[in-house]
Design goal:
Blueprint: E1 3-8, H1 22-37, E2 41-48, H2 53-61, H3 66-83, E3 90-93, H4 97-109, E4 114-124, E5 129-131, H5 133-138, E6 151-160, H6 166-174, E7 179-181, H7 184-195, E8 199-200, E9 202-204, E10 220-222, H8 224-229, H9 231-234, E11 251-255, H10 259-273, E12 280-284, E13 287-289, E14 292-293, H11 304-323, E15 330-332, H12 334-362, H13 377-384, H14 388-409, H15 411-417, H16 420-441, H17 446-456
Parallel strand pairs: 1-2, 1-11, 2-3, 7-12, 11-12, 13-15
Antiparallel strand pairs: 4-5, 4-6, 6-8, 9-10, 13-14
Helix pairs in contact: 1-11, 6-7, 11-12, 12-16, 13-14, 14-16, 15-16, 16-17
Bound molecules: 5'-O-[(L-methionyl)-sulphamoyl]adenosine (MSP).
Length: 471
Amino acid sequence: MGKVYITTAIPYVNGVPHVGHAVDYLLADVCARYQKQLGNEVRFQAGTDEHGSKIWQKAKEQNIPVEEYVAANSKKFQDFISKLGVEYTDFVRTTDSDHQERVQKIWEKIKDHIYLAKYEGWYCSGCERFITDKEYEENNGVCPDHQKPYEKLEEENYYLKISDFKDQIKDAIESHKMLILPEFREKEILKLLEESPDVSISRPRSQLTWGIPVPGDDNQVMYVWMDALSNYITVLGYPDEDISNWWPAYAQFVGKDILRFHALIWPAILLALGLELPKTLSSHGMILANGQKMSKSIGNVIDPLEVLEKHGTEAFRYYFLRHVDTFADSDFTWEKFEDAYNNELANDLGNLVQRLSTMCKKNNFSLNHVPEIKLEKEYCDLMNEFRFKDAFDFAWEKVQAINKKIDDEKPWALSKEGNIEKLNQVLNELVVSLLEVSKLLEPFLPETSSKISNIFAGEIMPPAEPLFPKK
Ligand code: MSP
């Protein structure tokens, strides 16, 4: 049995969760549940990113002490993750004292690769990112994501010498020792790496008070990304504890917008610490609303709690794992969501369970013994390549094939004819197929999968309520 460590990006707590935040958690959860099916022991981190100028400003605007503000929002994220049916094992808040102390120790350990220098240039507090002159010109001085002019900074900062590690990072990416997914992003990242100057990892306290103090320099506070990226190992206890059971991570899930931090700064920090690089960095696309970026100012933000309340966890997981591409941008509209719910979940699967269990009950059929179910190679290949949507499609085709087999074999006609031998054989095949599919669906729809096993694995009883009542 192996040990597998899976991570998710830790969201900023300058707002409440929106549907986009669900993507990291769901992909990581599918990965984790599949690894458990393979017999591996899984550790699954989640958390909240609570420092930085953006959060500080928001708390100030709302006139709430910043500690209270971040605690309340962090709680909302924890509740949200649980409502998604996500089985994380560790939760880190970057304001936890353990985390803060460990990040300071990390800083001390990589000191040989840190130097102090003057920064004169641009910053976007929305992105919490230093902006190069080239980007400034390309975007005419305004952040395309936040529609805010870049701020001019002139400050003394500590820098991490990315230049010390460029060759090693390049080699790890090219050799796929650190696999970047989807693979087309690899070139993009290699280009960024080539152009990347050393990165600033602190801000003057005069500009930013809400952060972890730089050890040995009262005038400086850590840059939020230095603090945030470290969470992946501080939560395991690093550097106080031996993390070699879990590190390197099997997979780190992030959105495409933050892949650059994970593929450039994060590896540099790890290499400076003498730690291995994660095996896979899997980056997903953005959820759009009617083809548009979701934003408060446009007023098209979809509240995930509303979706969960109306349709439940399983329906939410279904849409976001099958109708949202694993790697590319995808749209959310209520219409698409409701179509998928009614036509696919309710019709294809819910009806199938109802229909087949009713037929079995009526004909007094139960399995003599429940066969041991192995995961098919084609499915495992897709899962191992992190192509979760494709694996889900593969499972769904089997759901549809069972429906077709019922229509073709017409068990009700066999029953009417009194052809009991053939009827039992057909029901047996159908039930075994459904249990097989149910196993494939387990990482995606865990509750549904367990309901199906309960209904069909012993004496067969139709559920009192349809699994997915039509809406
Ligand atoms: N705090 C940083 C991450 C630090 S990780 C060491 C951050 N936070 S965030 O709240 O802006 O984003 C958190 C995650 O949600 C990221 O993976 C991001 O890509 C993802 N998403 C944010 N908006 C999204 C959509 N509209 N759609 C899909 N994912 C989105 O970045």
